[in-house]
Design brief:
Elements (H helix, E strand, L loop, with lengths): L2 H10 L12 H9 L9 E5 L4 H14 L4 E4 L11 E3 L2 E2 L2 H20 L9 H14 L5 E5 L16 E4 L7 H4 L3 H8 L9 E3 L7 H10 L4 E3 L4 E8 L2 E7 L3 E6 L5 H15 L4 H9 L8 E5 L2 E5 L4 H14 L4 E7 L6 H8 L5 E4 L10 H4 L8 E3 L3 H6 L8 E7 L1 H11 L4
Parallel strand pairs: 1-5, 1-6, 2-5, 6-7, 7-8, 13-17, 14-15, 14-17, 15-16
Antiparallel strand pairs: 2-3, 3-4, 9-10, 10-11, 12-13
């Protein structure tokens, strides 16, 4: 297959969350048939609810700044699936992506025909196997590997990493991970391996004991961001700078917006010290990190900011950002979500911060119909639009002092990036 065909086939496998079959047997069987490429790489394995992607981005950037060749595996993508598998900071070329897909797909078909596996690997399993192939056959020194969903039974959890990182844990995907924070934390803690060092971000009170208990059971040496002090903190709308003091002092300049990114940057920095990355590379690498689609200003006139606040924790982070930096501005919001998200809670957090809300639908089968939001909010100026383009047309009267936030699903954020580009 060519690249468009491979992408079409992946999408035809169905939504990567809804069609997930939890368990590692199938991915292990496929990888064994491919020669276990994951065993030829060094990994930093990162789990968490919110913040794991940006933490991965900062770790990878600093590893690259130290002179290492890097791999980065993330999900979801914003515009193209090639964004999920990066080499030295760049998405995989389409020809390499296609070659890896064809190899994984052919192997899966052979295993299916032999009755060795029950079903074709899912979207996420397929892309995970592709990533391991690409990383193993590239000059990667270290691969930063983001968990897709949960941890214990996630397809990425077939590796024995050099370091595990668990960022802040909150509610999300309760139907799959459990309805309590303790249950969710138990799934995330599933990435811990006996004797392999780990870094824990600051956690909610219900979460910490679960992680600590599992770490003690596996004799895991743990570094905690709570053991490092943050001082001289300066926040602005574009990022932060602070001093992180522990066994050594780091002067961190984080280019990712939002107060929540301070903890993510601290987690990345502590992880990097565990990997023996020089202080100068940690500082310069974090300062150069990029994580699109999260509090990203893509247009200045009018000001348009996009943010994938798709769950309650993400919504609280965006609300805090709006309260701090946009309290005196007229905020107009375009919102779109998937049906399986905590939409009522997210709307309750975000909509009071906006003078006007346009609810639309991302171009996805699981998108929530905009009209459904009318039933769960009493916002005084709420309208609906069938798509993002129509929603933006409703904001054609935006004044210079207004700010437009496009938020909710990362699919909607990806559409905004594709439609508007970055006009900063």
């Amino acid at each position: 297959m060519n690249y468009p065909d491979s992408v079409h086939f992946l999408y035809a496998l169905g939504n990567e969350i809804k069609t997930a079959k939890f368990g590692l047997e199938r991915i292990r069987t496929v990888l064994a048939a491919l020669g276990d490429p994951q065993d030829r790489c060094r990994f930093v394995h990162v789990a968490g609810t919110n913040g794991k992607g940006s933490t991965c981005a900062m770790i990878e950037s600093a590893l690259r700044a130290s002179g290492r060749h890097t791999g980065l595996f993330i999900s979801p993508h914003l515009n193209e699936p090639t964004e999920r598998i990066c080499l030295d900071g760049e998405p995989t070329p389409t020809d390499r992506f296609t070659e890896a897909f064809n190899r994984v797909h052919a192997t899966a078909e052979e295993l299916l025909n032999a009755g060795t596996i029950d079903l074709h690997p899912t979207y996420f399993e397929t892309v995970t196997a592709m990533a391991f192939l690409i990383f193993a056959e590239s000059p990667t020194d270290t691969v930063v590997l983001e968990v897709g969903l949960g941890g214990r039974l996630d397809a990425t959890n077939v590796v024995r990493p050099e370091l595990c990182v668990i960022t802040q844990i909150d509610f999300d995907h309760e139907a799959f991970l459990g309805i309590s924070l303790e249950a969710i934390a138990g799934e995330k803690a599933g990435i811990l391996k006996r004797g392999v060092p780990a870094v824990f971000s600051r956690q909610r009170p219900e979460v910490g004991p679960v992680l600590e208990s599992r770490a003690a059971e596996l004799a895991v040496p743990v570094s905690r961001t709570s053991d490092w002090a943050v001082s001289d903190l300066e926040l602005n709308a574009c990022g932060s700078r602070f001093t992180l003091s522990g066994p050594q002092a780091l002067h961190v300049q984080c280019p990712l917006a939002g107060e929540h990114q301070v903890e993510n940057a601290a987690s990345a920095a502590v992880a990097l010290t565990n990997l023996d990355v020089p202080v100068r590379a940690i500082e310069s690498g974090i300062a150069r990190a990029r994580w699109p689609g999260r509090l990203e200003q893509i247009c200045r006139d009018p000001e348009i900011v996009i943010d994938g606040a798709h769950n309650p924790a993400g919504a609280r982070a965006l609300a805090s950002y709006l309260d701090r930096f946009y309290a005196r501005r007229r905020v107009r919001m375009i919102y779109g979500a998937m049906r399986d998200k905590a939409v009522e809670e997210v709307c309750g957090i975000l909509f009071p911060r906006a003078a006007q809300v346009i609810v639309t639908a991302p171009q996805q089968p699981r998108a929530l119909y905009p009209e459904a939001v009318l039933q769960i909010t009493g916002h005084p100026d709420l309208r609906t639009a069938p798509g993002l383009r129509e929603a933006l047309e409703l904001m054609s009267d935006t004044r210079p002092e207004d700010a437009i936030f496009i938020t909710g699903s990362l699919y909607l954020v990806g559409e905004a990036r594709a439609l508007l580009g970055t006009r900063s």
